[in-house]
């Protein structure tokens, strides 16, 4: 391996790592607000921004970031006006962004080929200067997404409550839109504008298969995002030289593979958790006289062919000071000569 | 109560609210003194939620003004003094959130951005969760709780802010009798600290003993404002209407105090 190749790989790996960190951090708030496709909408708007850069000779990254921020703020303002719902506002920007991009690149005379690098990513052409810009932008995104987590969480969770708690909900919503716009432009070079949204959403969808809290979802989505971005890049670099494997595609496919793995695990753990939840609300005060004769004592009339035990084949669920067994939709606990329904 | 005791906690003067061009609240005059426990009653669509949304500044007035702690609501900044339980079917959102996290949002009125929670914040969150009896579920996801339990999470979120004014919009909808009793106990405890309570409800249930005053809404207007009576559901029963001559003649009939009610009839008050 040549030094040149190592230098290139280092730049690409850094860019992928940073993208994988920032995209799910913002994506978590988009999913929480049920605006999962906002990243996509902004990505389409950024196409127009790139085209303006190509037309004017300015840096396409710079024009993309400016136009993406304008687009993101616009979507938010349309949504806040409440006249059209969030997804109608998104649709308008989707179409306007793509159509504008095609029109402006046509004017610039570069055609669709000029856009290609931005639509599908071009990690191979990333310079050290690009890497340092990415480091700066990702630092801003991560500091805001984590530092303002309590506020952004509350606003996305229940906007009216947040307003009565004195939070400037408009400002925080616009912050999320601007963060999404910055992330889209950061990810433009690695995964490309068409697949940006995937890296914002899929790690979050994967994480929430296994998590119960917002913080855990946010942090593990960021972890999964970096693993997918770096892993996908390595997969594409390992591909034989004669085929052209786009890193953007492998990054998204690796994160999808993570989801496919996590999904059955999530279904299974959620099932276990439900089984482990006592049917009777624990607030009920225990009966004074006989601790067993509270609301939980429901004698099961059916006869049991065997005594439930460690290896009777029924699922055992630890429950306080005893073990329940699950079979035929019941949860039974041995109690003296009979079984109770728990 | 803080040092600067306000003369009124909530004051609505000749308030009106329009939603989508349609007048929803009209001629609201309401003044709530510190420590009062007020129940807002009325049929579906009578404007109860709109009234509390106007009080909290969520619904802008088209006429008149709202004062919170003697400050116009548009300039009010001391939101840590207000706790709000919005009318909600669920406490869940698009991403898992634990009971603790949702309740901790109730402390945000006390916290500046980028400041971590202090021990006092954590203690208040734990106390609020304990008050609604969800301590051993505080690490669980809210979406895995039943509807009534989620409602209790929303109540805990409002109490966690240790407010001086607590506004609850149908907090007992879907809540079992036992939890209603423990909510009543929690609210009773709050009133001993001088907290003012505005409670929107259809069913007073175990909370009835707390209520010092009721306001009955009908068709966007206050039709009764006075001490609680045994016929607090009269607003739902057209048989009890008393037509006041000249009162609100250009609108729907106005109800005064239900039978035996010694309250102040509000219907006759007109815009100047
Ligand atoms: N966004 C809105 N646009 C237009 N009209 C609205 C809007 N929200 C509420 N309304 C109308 O305002 C009236 C009062 O609604 P409000 O929610 O205050 O009633 P409520 O007394 O709280 O009823 P409920 O017991 O069902 O909660 C209703 O007639 C409703 O149709
Ligand atoms: Mg209501
Ligand atoms: Zn068995
Ligand atoms: Zn058991
Ligand atoms: Zn059994
Ligand atoms: Zn038994």
Approximate shape of chain A:
elongated
Instruction: Count the E strands of chain B.
Output: 10
SS-based class of chain A: alpha+beta
Give the neighbour order of strands across the main sheet of chain A: 1-2-3-4
Second-tier CATH architecture of chain B: 3-Layer(aba) Sandwich
Q: Give the helix tally of chain B.
A: 5
CATH class of chain B: Alpha Beta
- Low-pLDDT sequence parts of chain A: 281-295
The name CATH uses for the topology of the largest domain in chain A is ABC transporter involved in vitamin B12 uptake, BtuC
Question: In the residues of chain B, how many domains can be counted?
Answer: 1
Characterize the biggest β-sheet of chain B.
6 strands, mixed
Low-pLDDT segments, ≥5 res of chain B:
232-272
- Shape-level CATH architecture of the largest domain in chain A: Orthogonal Bundle
CATH superfamily of chain B: P-loop containing nucleotide triphosphate hydrolases
The tally of strands of chain A reads 4
Oligomer: heterodimer
Which compounds are bound in this model?
A: adenosine-5'-triphosphate, magnesium ion, zinc ion
Biggest protein-protein interface?
A-B, 38 and 41 residues
Estimated share of beta-strand residues of chain A = 5-15%
Structural overview:
The complex is a heterodimer of chains A (342) and B (272). Chain A contains 12 helices and 4 strands. Chain A has 342 residues and is of the alpha+beta class. Chain A folds into 2 domains: 3-273, ABC transporter involved in vitamin B12 uptake, BtuC; 281-342, no CATH class. The longest helix of chain A is centred in the N-terminal third of the chain and has 30 residues, at 3-32. The N and C termini of chain A lie far apart (64 Å). Chain B is α/β, with parallel strands linked by helices and 272 residues long. Chain B has a single domain, classed as 3-Layer(aba) Sandwich (Rossmann fold). Helices cover 21% and strands 22% of the residues of chain B. In chain B, a hairpin with a 2-residue loop joins β4 (63-68) and β5. Chain A binds chain B through residues 28, 31-34, 36, 147-148, 150-151, 153-154, 156-158, 160-167, 204, 208, 211-217, 273-274, 277, 282-284, and chain B through 53, 56-58, 77, 79-80, 82, 84, 86, 88, 91, 93-98, 100-102, 104-106, 108-109, 111, 113-114, 133, 136-137, 139-141, 144, 157, 161, 178-179, 182. Adenosine-5'-triphosphate binds next to β2 and α1 of chain B.
